[in-house]
Specification:
This protein folds into 2 domains: 179 residues, no CATH class; 188 residues, no CATH class. Helix 2 crosses helix 9. Strands 4, 5, 6, 7, 8, 9 and 10 form a 7-stranded mixed beta sheet that branches. Strands 3-12-1-13 form a 4-stranded antiparallel beta sheet. Strands 2-11 form a two-stranded antiparallel ribbon. By secondary structure, the protein is of the alpha+beta class.
């Protein structure tokens, strides 16, 4: 109770000090939540692409700037020693003609999907609603995709999404939503998954009308995902595929993974540095407040020591006071940060733009950091108070 009374003696000063901690923790939570979201996307990419080999055509073809392969090439790759399975894929834009902004929200996409691939993939998907694709005209939506367009299992959706300035030759088709994936915090959340036959149809529709009927897309894939047998080195298997199958380019998983990791490390360093700077400012305000408190309460400290208070009692009192300031500021800052990030995510959900991810790890870090900051900032003032000579303190007062 005495510690609380001490804090209420100088309400304005302590409020301003706590506000400094609040601002620091608010910065930590918002910047940290941004880093958590970015790292969740990257971690998902590392996990997924580290478990398979992405194979495309060795050179880009003229139509649409896309690299295409004959579907028969998938069978050739499957015959390479060490390959467990290969799945031909076609991916097309879900919102053709739209401008993709630079953000933490992945762009919506439509891709062919073979449910068998889930047993090989390191990123396992589960159904929040419904079932897997089983026939043409069916689609499974990622959680963000479904939320963006307010779709549930049993709904219908026209794919690709018709842009507001669609040309006369724009074609889309109605699909029945048979399932919605549980949230993964990474790539599958923004996808629409259909079977290969339907994806080949959408690929044909995406071609310019002048050449649409000249190309048989039913024999084409835009790439494939290859899984190796247990224990097989995927980088070495990539080289083997390139050597044994002509016309393809198998990218080593380590190449993709390293690009993800380098981007994540840079972003985390930037956000962490900004948050720590704000916290340091908050810590300095705690030191200033506690030093002033010691100066103002010299007589009180002298009286306590004169009637028998030990050095450890004075030290503990001032440390607890500083720690309480850190705890109050940290709690308020955390709640404000959590509220702001939640509001921003809710406001941008319809645009499929989720900037923040508040995790329990971040919550614990924010609380521990703020409490620790208060305790550390209170050490110098507490030592100064505890070492006061009672006679000199009373004389000075």
């Amino acid at each position: 109770m005495e510690i609380i009374r001490n804090l209420t003696r100088r309400k304005l000063r302590n409020t301003l000090t706590i506000s400094g901690i609040v601002i620091g923790v608010l910065a930590l939570v918002t910047m940290g939540a941004m880093a958590e979201k970015f790292n969740a996307l990257l971690d998902g990419g590392v996990t997924y692409f580290g478990s398979n080999i992405q194979v495309t055509a060795a050179g880009a073809s003229a139509f649409g700037g896309s690299s295409v392969l004959q579907q028969s090439t998938v069978s050739q790759v499957e015959q390479v020693p060490g390959v467990a399975a290969a799945f031909g894929e076609i991916q097309v834009q879900a919102k053709p003609g739209s401008v993709q902004t630079v953000s933490f929200g992945l762009p919506d996409y439509i891709t062919s999907y073979d449910p068998r691939a889930n047993s090989y993939s390191a990123v396992k998907t589960t159904m929040a609603q419904g079932r897997d694709v089983a026939a043409s005209g069916e689609v499974v939506l990622g959680s963000d995709f479904a939320h963006e367009f307010s779709k549930n299992a049993g709904s219908t959706i026209d794919l690709p999404i018709r842009p507001s300035d669609a040309k006369a030759d724009f074609v889309n088709h109605s699909f029945t939503v048979v399932g919605v994936l549980a949230k993964t915090q990474t790539g599958p959340d923004t996808g629409a998954f259909i079977n290969l036959k339907d994806a080949q149809m959408l690929l044909k529709d995406s071609l310019p009308a002048a050449i649409r009927d000249r190309i048989d897309t039913s024999t084409l894939v835009t790439g494939m995902t290859v899984y190796g047998n247990p224990g097989v080195n995927l980088d070495n298997l990539s080289d083997t595929i390139n050597n044994q199958v002509s016309g393809v380019k198998a990218t080593k998983p380590s190449t993709i993974v390293n690009s993800f990791k380098s981007g994540g490390a840079l972003f985390t360093a930037i956000t962490t540095g900004a948050a720590l700077l704000a916290l340091i400012v908050g810590g300095l305000s705690v030191i200033n407040t506690m030093l002033m408190a010691v100066t103002e309460r010299v007589r009180e400290i002298g009286l306590k020591k004169a009637v028998g208070a030990h050095t450890r009692h004075i030290l503990r009192e001032y440390l607890l006071e500083a720690t309480l300031i850190g705890a109050i500021g940290g709690t308020v800052g955390l709640l404000l940060g959590w509220g702001i990030t939640s509001l921003v995510n809710a406001a941008t959900a319809t645009s499929n733009l989720s900037l923040f991810l508040v995790t329990w790890r971040l919550v614990i870090i924010a609380i521990v950091f703020s409490v620790g900051l208060g305790a550390i900032a209170g050490i110098i003032p507490a030592l100064r108070a505890s070492r006061m000579d009672p006679v000199r303190a009373l004389r000075a007062a």
